[in-house]
Amino acid sequence: MNKEINQSLFLLGSSHQVADLAARERISLPPGSIDEFYNGLSQIEGLDEYLLLNTCNRTEIYGAVQKSFSFDSLGKYLSNFRKLEPEFLSQHSYQRNDHEVVDHLFKVTSGIDSQMVGETEILGQVKKAYEDACQRKAAGKMLNRLFQKGFQAAKWARTNTGISRGQVNLGNVLCDLARRIFGKVSNCRLLVLGAGEVAESTIEAFKSRGSQAITVSGRTFDWCPLCRNKPAELAEKFDGFTLSFDRFKDSMHLFDVILTSTASGKSLIDYRDIQKSMQKRPAQPLFLIDASVPRNIEEKVSQIENVFLYNMDDVSTIANENLKSRISEVDRCKGALARRAAKLWEQMTQAREIS
Amino acid sequence: MNFNDARDLMWIAGGLYGSAFILGFLKTFRLNWSPLNEAPLAGIIIGFLLHTRALYLRGLDIHGCPLGNTLERIQFILWSLILTFLILRLLWRLDLLGSFCAGLSFGAGWLTLTLPNTDPKYWLATDYHKLFSDPWIELHASIAIFSYGVFSLLAIVSGMYLIQRKALLSRKFDKLGSFLPPINDLEIACWRLLTVGVIFLTISILVGGMHWTRHPEFVTSIKLAVTILLWLGYSVVFLLHLTHRIYGSKFAKISIILFLLAIGSLALVNSKNRENTKQEIKPVQSTDLSL
Q1: For chain A, what is the mean pLDDT?
Q2: Do residues A239 and A210 make contact, with C-beta atoms less than 8 angstroms apart?
Q3: Do A160 and B171 touch (CB under 8 A)?
Q4: SS3 for A13?
Q5: Which of A29, B5, B100, B257 has its CA at 20 to 30 Å from residue A116's CA atom?
Q6: Ranges of each domain in chain B
Q7: CB under 8 Å to A194, separation ≥6 — which residues?
Q8: How does strand A58-65 pair with strand A47-54?
């Protein structure tokens, strides 16, 4: 008799939906223990196929199980493995069966169950987990079908709904704005004044999109042997260039995007500076980002033709708008994915009945 | 509907452009219906083919390039606009530009078909032989009208530039703004379209000018003044942009204003013809059709 006939789907998991960061840290599996965890799963009675999805925000075990499988056995195994009290695990976890598993996976792969709605990283993580399970021969016919359909559902959701529209991370929002102004971000020449977290996040976002011409400038205290030269360190980290802070104004016309993120507390770039540099680069737009509080760029510069000035409030507003727009799409996406999940589950149960 | 009637074909082509315009915007605003993906472009292409046949049939009727009345001139400009868009579409994937072009072609095309007196049947006059007495004048008129098509596309791209600029300056990105090309690309596109338009208009003026030196009596002073002013306007803008004296929003606004003036200048030519047709249907003087 075919094993598949009596199989059903099962999921035990914990995510940001039911557990805070501290709880997730306790449940999450350390990378070095994955092999051991898989070995233990193979010993559980009635668990024919299994797959572990272990990310910073979720730990989930998907399974194709026989009737002889006991849900408690998997819970006990995870509690013992992570040395958790059973009550703690039941309080910070969820269980799903059959069509609920399909529905849940579709939501996970499409990103609507993610903390940052619509993020795309989760799809790569699920793919990696699936490949890992395949290599271990832990995933069989039923999980194969489930996950392949899950990847298709994710692609459908991203193409046909607005859940991934707009960026919500600061660096990505700035890259998106740069793309609206210049087209390819990889061709943009970026000058960063300051070497704080905002500067680093922005450089990282530009670098990840292929930008090669990244220059960092900032005030350094070379006379003090205890002071670090943070701009130089930042430039080195991202294979960028450094520019003397005293001379950056003379070179401003060479850059397409200028970000100021310093704690100088005074205006560093005024109307005349920008006017002077725009005369040297006519008909080419200039994108200025003032991420400093108090501001480093005189607001009047936005009156100059082809100059686009954004401060932190503007960028935050855009990020929040993008997030709102994604959330408004979630219900539509959920409904459509639920219909797809129900259809898939119907096909899977029909196939079982026929066989 | 008669597929051998030029006007019927123009109506259908206009309808297809209108459908492409509506479907294009529905697609832009993410209506969840996959067949919609290629429908706007398909509508524009089929519309263009029918539009081409319509102008061809009218050309057979009048024995020349169909530029004898307001309807024919407007339809030829719209045909040139769609042709230029389709050529550009091979280079850039600018579907939203197609929607704007289809919208203009639909609106202007159906308006001229609806308005009375835009399509007098001058070729039915008993003594009518052909529209253009001289093939050079026919070349002059067709190139000039084609350059109008390029300038109409320039006006559309300039409009897109201003929408994108407004979105960037106001920090409010609606769905339309998010599907527009980058502002820098739009300015480059405007510059290239202006260059192509000015080249075609200059060639047209040179060809027309050679005929004018031989037969100055065929060209009215108003027409001559309008033509020269328009050419000067576009050429000055071209030179000012080349030397970086006009760029950005000023360049976009001037391009739109110049296009409106260019369309207005067509009406000036037409008013003279209409007076002629009120008296009797007569073949139009070849040089009346030049710009």
Answers
A1: 86
A2: no
A3: no
A4: strand
A5: A29
A6: 1-118, 135-291
A7: A218, A231, A259, A260, A261, A262, A263, A291, A292
A8: antiparallel
For residue B94 the two structure tokens come to: 């600018």
Whether the complex's predicted ipTM is more than 0.85 is answered with no
B183, B241, B249: residue with CB nearest A181: B183
A31 Cβ under 8 Å from any chain B Cβ: no
Rounded CA separation A184/A175 (Å): 10
Please state the rounded mean pLDDT for residues A333-355. 82
**A95: β partners:** A12
Q: B31 to chain A: nearest residue by CA?
A: A160
Show the tokens assigned to A7. Answer: 């199989």
Planar angle of CA B231, B205, B6, nearest 5 degrees = 100
Strand A241-242, strand A257-260: pairing: unpaired
Distance of CA A231 to the CA centre of its chain: 27
For A191-241, how does the pLDDT look when each residue is reduced to its tens digit (9 = 90+)?
999 887 788 888 988 988 888 899 998 876 555 555 566 788 888 888 889
Comparing CB atoms, the residue among B167, B185, B250 nearest residue A183 is: B185
State pLDDT tens for residues A52-94: 999 878 999 999 998 888 888 999 999 999 999 999 999 999 9
pLDDT digits (tens, 9 = 90+) for A275-316: 999 999 888 999 999 988 778 899 899 999 999 999 888 887
Enter the pTM of the model: 0.69
Q: What is the pLDDT of residue B291?
A: 44
**What burial letters (b/e) apply to A191-228, b meaning 16+ CB within 10 Å?**
bbbbbbebbbbbbbbbbebebebbbbbbebeeeeeeee
DSSP class of residue A95 equals: E
Burial class (CB in 10 A: 0-12, 13-18, 19+), A287: buried
Q: Express the helix, strand and coil content of chain B in percent, nearest 5 each.
A: 80, 0, 20
Are A161 and B182 inside 8 Å of each other by CB? Answer: no
Contact B184 A284 (CB under 8 A): yes
Chain B interface, mutation test: which of A159, A181, A281, A317, most B Cβ atoms within 10 Å? Answer: A181
Which chain B positions have a beta carbon within 8 Å of A179's beta carbon?
A: 182
Residue-wise pLDDT tens digits, A138-158 = 999 999 999 999 999 999 888
Active-site residue A56, yes or no? yes
Give B-chain residues touching A334 at CB under 8 angstroms.
Answer: none
Q: What is the mean pLDDT of residues A6-10?
A: 84
Do A305 and B181 lie within an 8 Å CB cutoff? no
Query: How distant is the Cα of B85 from the closest Cα of chain A, in angstroms?
Result: 20
Q: Is the pLDDT of residue A2 over 70?
A: no
Residue written as tokens 């306007």? B233
Low-confidence ranges of chain B (pLDDT < 70): 29-36, 91-93, 175, 267-291
B166 and A CB contact within 8 Å: no
SS3 A157: helix
Give the C-alpha distances (Å, rounded to integers) separating A191 from A195, B52, B284.
11, 52, 63
Domains of chain A, each with CATH number or no CATH? 3-160 (3.30.460.30), 170-317 (3.40.50.720)
Asked if the model's pLDDT at residue A109 lies above 80, the reply is yes
